[in-house]
Write a structure and sequence with these properties.
This protein is of the alpha/beta class. The chain has helices at residues 14-17, 20-27, 64-76, 96-102, 120-126, 142-153, 203-221, 223-231, and strands at residues 2-7, 32-37, 50-51, 61-62, 83-93, 107-112, 129-132, 188-189, 192-193. The chain folds into two domains: 2-153, SPOUT methyltransferase, trefoil knot domain (Alpha/beta knot); 179-231, Trp Operon Repressor, Chain A, CATH 1.10.1270. A five-stranded parallel sheet has the order 2-1-6-5-7. The protein has a two-stranded antiparallel ribbon with strand order 3-4. Strands 8-9 form a two-stranded antiparallel ribbon. The chain starts with a strand and ends with a helix. The structure holds 6-chloroguanine. It comes from Bythopirellula polymerisocia.
């Protein structure tokens, strides 16, 4: 799976790309990430890509020409243009169903905004799918792009080992409940005991305990998820 990221801050991705799971996936050629600096498509000598909003107001708007030309230029690289996604607080909110749909593409082109966003004509001309990661304001789309990459690569075959298999993850199609509580050694810490059943070796009982624990957690923390299960 190939990702192309267009951003004014490509350096933000360097630490992320060297984290273990992604680093391994890149080394094994399961995932490719190509970073592109929007400034490289600027036409003026100061590499300026933003300007003041028509109509006044605070902040700066990213200009249409370098953005459209950057996306078009990047989409001609590689074997297919890929699916274009713009990260913006005005987009549809990312969830696991959206992630599952995105993971079916062989190439995603992620356009990260900054400041007060892009000139509207970028959307009018390129018709990207617009995505947000939640109802809060980030300084730019870069952290959201990393969330998209991080969630999508988990579904790329071979990226996770069998042990970390993704289809039982919370929110995935096969499981809309929250994960159950987990424990490791020691058996007792500051007077808090590991539930006895988990030490019993009785695997059907352990599975039943975990199922019950998932339901209780979901009911108290995210009852909306149970409602959704009932609908489906
Ligand atoms: Cl994609 N961008 C920005 N700037 N803020 C956000 C977001 C995206 N998603 C949630 N907040």
């Amino acid at each position: 799976m190939r990702f192309d990221v267009l951003t004014l801050f490509p350096e933000m991705f360097s630490g992320y790309m060297t984290q273990s799971l992604l680093k391994l996936a890149i080394e094994r050629n399961l995932v490719q990430i190509h970073l592109h600096n929007l400034r490289d498509w600027s036409r003026d000598k100061h590499q300026c890509v933003d300007d003041r909003p028509f109509g006044g107001g605070p902040g700066m708007v990213i200009k249409p020409e370098p953005t459209v030309e950057a996306v078009e230029g990047v989409q001609t690289l590689g074997t297919s243009p890929g699916k274009l996604i713009m990260l913006t607080p005005q987009g549809e909110t990312l969830n696991q169903q959206v992630v599952e749909r995105l993971a079916k593409h062989e190439r995603l082109v992620l356009l990260c905004g900054r400041y007060e966003g892009f000139d509207q004509r970028v959307c009018d001309i390129l018709q990207p799918e617009e995505l947000s990661i939640g109802d809060f304001v980030l300084n730019g789309g870069e952290v959201a792009a990393m969330a998209v990459i991080d969630t999508v690569i988990r579904l790329v075959p071979g990226v996770l080992g069998d042990e970390e298999s993704s289809h039982v993850d919370s929110f995935s199609t096969g499981n809309r409940l929250l994960e159950h509580s987990q424990y490791t050694r020691p058996r007792e810490y500051r007077g808090h005991q590991v539930p006895e059943i988990l030490l019993s070796g009785d695997h059907p009982q352990i599975a039943a305990w975990r199922e019950q624990n998932s339901r209780e957690r979901t009911k108290s923390r995210r009852p909306d998820l149970l409602d959704r299960t009932a609908e489906n």
